[in-house]
Amino acid sequence: MLSFTEENYLKAVLKLTVNGDTKSDAGTNKLAAYLNVKPATATDMLKKLKEKKLIDYEKYGKITLSETGKLKAVEIIRKHRLWETFLFEKLDFTWDEVHEVAEQLEHIHSPKLIDKLDEFLGYPSFDPHGDAIPNAKGELRIAKQKPLSAVSPETSCKMIGVRDNSTTFLKYVTQLGLAINTSIKIISRQEFDGSMEIEMNGKTATVSQKFAENILVD
Fold this sequence. Notes:
This protein is α+β, with helices and mostly antiparallel strands. Among the domains are: 4-65, Arc Repressor Mutant, subunit A (Orthogonal Bundle); 146-217, Roll (SH3 type barrels), CATH 2.30.30.90. It has eight helices and ten strands. The strands form three sheets. A six-stranded antiparallel sheet has the order 5-10-6-7-8-9.
């Protein structure tokens, strides 16, 4: 059985190397920065994961998950996103509260419990943040998405997810009146700084380019 820390590393490697239909490289420094640990600490853990044949890794080289490691990482993400959905839909947690609690619940080792949870929720495809939930076979449905910043002025779209799951960002999104499936119309974009004027729910707001890059739309 893997430790909580080992599971967190596998999940982090998967998130850093697979983004939708695209793949990118992850090295020790990038992984350490993502997990907010020292590179030496990350190196020690990577050695342990390699000994367990969960990753392929050479010093100063890129990190890739083995087939076993990838299956384990997908399993952890499935549990995390199912717990987020349960907390949001059934226990009235807000979408900025669910992540921290799900971080604890995702380490429960009971396949039967997770399968029952999935069934209880009606086999959801996406969590409260719009992230795809892997099914019991480890299959992941990838939604066609792009950042709000890529949408042309005088065009309408629908919010389907967020890139930034931090509490501060999600609270700001909520304050603006945005949520999953909210329709958004782009009124204008400033060429100088990329800020955008948008309309949603009959209200208008001006948002920064950074904000628009973290809102995912269809």
